[in-house]
Specification:
Layout lengths: L2 H21 L4 H4 L5 H8 L3 H29 L1 H19 L4 H29 L4 H33 L6 H7 L3 H16 L20 H30 L4 H26 L6 H20 L4 H25 L4 H33 L3 H21 L11 H7 L4
């Protein structure tokens, strides 16, 4: 291997490590809230519907920022855009821990905006720099997302208890626990700095890229959008309310927090199983259909046999995580090039997260009205059935077709 090849290999390794560190930030700051939800509600006197906003606000930020993220990436370059995402996550974590309701909500939205940018642009970055390893690297970075969120969820209650034990007075115990995840974005920012130095600015004609509006008229794009949207709809309901469900079923706060962390870890496990096969499959229909049915099994288990919640948490987490991986992989498999992938990713995450954003508030309201988790879980089961149908259609071996404009052809030649 020549010195030049060694240098390129080293840069690729550091780029992959940087991507994985970014991925570690893409769930943990949100999922760490659920185990502390009862403490936050008690401290700030929030209703269940208001508490649902803590899960819904990031999703609304995802929906608002997803269409803009692709444009931001084109305008300032993927590396700078991803650094912007990390800075937003860092700032949001700090603001959220100030202890007031307004700071909590605003900081949560800022965190969601940062996560949205990274969510949209990471698939585009993978398709640009690792076109032959998209499926494998997608699985690996989703695995990292799961590990990061599992750690954040599992340590939330112990960190809150530590703050109480140390008698920390300058912030509420739950705020101390939430700010503890700040280590992830700080490390990521430090590690991503070399990428900022190595990469060049995008070409001037990047801003003139085709808008890819045809994607919004594609039935295939809508099928994939609803597959990801329904998957997220159910997943964020369970992420947001699982600890409350379990505590109402007789589990302790620590046990509920542990299961919340276990849920996040379970979402990462499919990455290990799917790495060997995702790159070989041109048709993902049966795989997408099956992941939704696995998630359905977990939901029905929580509904009918809550005493075995740990088993059902693992089952649901595996199905939901696998569906997310398949959906992200389909974004690349259903498109021709980087810009089309970014446009489809923006559409799928915009509409999908708008759909998902209704979930936590809806479930909070239904629970307030009925005083039970039965109807909310039944609604989740219905969503899983619809998700399986959309997944079967979205997984077919087809490409979103279009006739690129002259501007598009010229821009594709030299865009970073």
């Amino acid at each position: 291997m020549t010195k030049e090849h060694q240098t390129l290999a080293t840069k690729s390794i550091f780029l992959i490590l940087g991507i994985l560190l970014i991925a570690a930030n893409l769930r943990g700051p949100i999922t760490s809230v659920a185990p502390l939800l009862d403490s936050i509600r008690s401290s700030l006197d929030l209703t269940a519907t208001q508490a649902g906003l803590l899960t819904t606000l990031p999703l609304l930020a995802f929906a608002f920022m997803s269409p803009l993220s692709s444009k931001i990436g084109h305008k300032i370059g993927l590396e700078r855009a991803l650094m912007t995402a990390l800075v937003l996550i860092l700032v949001g974590i700090i603001v959220r821990a100030l202890g007031s309701t307004s700071a909590l909500l605003f900081g949560t939205f800022v965190i969601g905006a940062g996560i949205a940018i990274a969510n949209v642009l990471l698939p585009s970055l993978l398709k640009r720099d690792f076109p032959t390893r998209v499926a494998t690297l997608t699985a690996v970075y989703v695995l990292t997302m799961g590990i990061g969120s599992a750690i954040s969820s599992a340590v939330a209650v112990p960190m809150s208890n530590l703050a109480e034990h140390l008698s920390i007075s300058f912030m509420p115990d739950w705020a101390f626990a939430l700010v503890s995840v700040i280590l992830f974005p700080i490390l990521s920012i430090l590690f991503w700095l070399p990428q900022m130095r190595e990469r060049t600015a995008p070409e001037k004609n990047t801003a003139r890229l085709d808008s890819h509006s045809y994607v919004w008229r594609s039935p295939l794009a809508w099928q994939l959008t609803f597959f990801l949207g329904l998957n997220s709809f159910v997943t964020y309901i369970i992420i947001g309310w699982l600890p409350s469900m379990l505590m109402d079923a007789g589990y302790s706060e620590v046990e509920a927090g542990f299961n919340a962390g276990l849920l996040q870890l379970a979402t990462a496990l499919p990455a290990i199983a799917l790495i060997p096969i995702m790159g070989k499959l041109k048709n993902q229909s049966l795989l997408a259909f099956g992941t939704a049915l696995i998630a359905l099994t977990g939901i029905l288990g929580l509904l009918l046999l809550p005493q075995f919640a740990t088993v059902w948490v693992l089952v649901f987490g595996f199905g939901g995580g696998a569906g997310f991986i398949v959906g992200l992989s389909c974004i690349s498999h259903r498109t021709h090039h980087t810009h089309q992938a970014a446009a489809l990713s923006g559409m799928a995450q915009c509409v999908g997260y708008l759909l998902a954003a209704t979930g936590p508030i809806l479930i909070g309201s239904v629970h307030d009205t009925t005083g039970s988790w039965s109807l909310p879980l039944i609604l989740c089961a219905i969503a899983c059935v619809l998700c399986s149908v959309c997944g079967f259609l979205a997984g077919r071996d087809r490409i979103i077709e279009h006739k690129p404009s002259i501007t598009m052809k010229v821009a594709d030649a030299g865009v970073v």
